[in-house]
Amino acid sequence: MSQSSEEKIFIGSFIHSNECGELIVIDRGMIHVKNGKISNIIINPSSNDEKNKNVIVLNNTQFLIPGFVDCHIHAVQLPNLGVGYDKELLEWLEHYTFPLEKKYIDEKFAEQVFNTVVKQTIKSGTTTACYFAALYPKASVILGQTVISKGQRALIGKISMNITRSDNYYETTEESIININKFIEDLIKLNSPLIKPVITPRFALSCDMTLMKKLGKLAKEKDLHVQTHVSENLDEIEAVKNMFPEYPSYTAVYDGAGLLTCKTVLAHGIYLSDDEIALLNERGTAIVHCPSSNTCLKSGLCDVQRLKSKSIKIGLGTDVSGGQSCSILDAIRSALQVSIHLSLIKENYKALNYKDVFHMATLGGAAALAMDNQIGNFEVGKEFDALVIDIDISDGLLNNLQSSTLEERLQKFIYSGDDRNIVEVYVSGRKVK
Ligand code: GUN
Ligand code: FE
């Protein structure tokens, strides 16, 4: 399916964030979309404008918000959603995750699961996803094809791991380099503006320094994004220390490999030291907050305010299936709840509010992925990636609110809405739900 070349004009309410994280609430505005991009925005258009060709007028229970950005999701782990939270990270990986991920050698299985993942995430309002795909290049390319065919925007990462395992779930260093190059080549051949490859060393415990350095070099040469995990679990951190004793910290291991750039996203970052945060800042590297996963796997409570106060870019991730839901709306709520719990046990800690987390799920996530010049809010020149929210759906619980303010309707959606309230989803101006 081609990108939309037609013109669309939306008239109605819209809400988005600015770079400072402030909420911008427009009761009545008009957004022109041409060739998938926002070409003009008018505040308080006249009722005459509603008579124009190609106008979509939202009703008074509806409003537009930017599409959600999921900065960290494992497409291959969907079949394990909701399973295995009796274990913590390292045992969970061995017992539940790696056995499932080995199945993606079967391309039919990959196709089936990825169809569901992409369909479900679009339904939940994810217009951009940063995916961990499979260890296998063929399955990883299938994820790219699926994303393109369903019209989502995504970064797609073939997982790299070369530490020997008795179950053979790894690549030799040589295979790993051949496979990542083949994957990048095949993904680029798909020739879609919607997807890009992302270099994906699984985490420091899965890759040796030789491989990580080769991947860092590749990312630099080809100007690619990088994604991995950092400082998620105390046993993991201890194991990294033992495996790389010559490096002062977990973050320093990645830096030593040249993997930290302003196009790198690191999931979790719960136990980072001040020195690690300073290093991330210097490199312009972002942290992806994964509150549902941090809770389900009992990894810890991430102090996002501390990271924010030190100017670290922060995106939000579902981290399926460490996290129990594909929905960024659920991640938003988890982030709010974790932050409130932290405020109850920490002195002088101010909990995040719904505006902070709405920003994190949209423009903040876009900035974390270094895509904020392209997506994340409604600005002329950006892609029209947007959700039409309706709080008055017939089978939902949020109706009878016509008299509430627009900001209250956003609150209702954030705290108590679900997929059914996301009535339309647009990526690059094209309706995908
Ligand atoms: N660390 C290494 N691999 C994984 C994974 O698949 N999920 C999570 N949450 N952490 C990881
Ligand atoms: Fe993860």
TrEMBL record:
Q: Which GO-annotated molecular functions does the record name?
A: guanine deaminase activity; zinc ion binding
* Any single Gene Ontology cellular-component annotation: cytosol
The Amidohydrolase-related domain covers which part of the protein?
A: 63-432
Q: Keywords assigned by UniProt?
A: Hydrolase, Metal-binding, Zinc
Q: Which cofactor does it need?
A: Zn(2+)
The cofactor binding remark recorded in the entry reads:
Binds 1 zinc ion per subunit.
Pathway connected to this protein: Purine metabolism; guanine degradation; xanthine from guanine: step 1/1
Q: Which NCBIfam families match?
A: guan_deamin
Task: Tell me its family.
Answer: Belongs to the metallo-dependent hydrolases superfamily. ATZ/TRZ family.
Question: What is the name attached to this protein's record?
Answer: Guanine deaminase
Instruction: Give the source lineage, highest ranks first.
Output: Eukaryota, Metazoa, Ecdysozoa, Arthropoda, Hexapoda
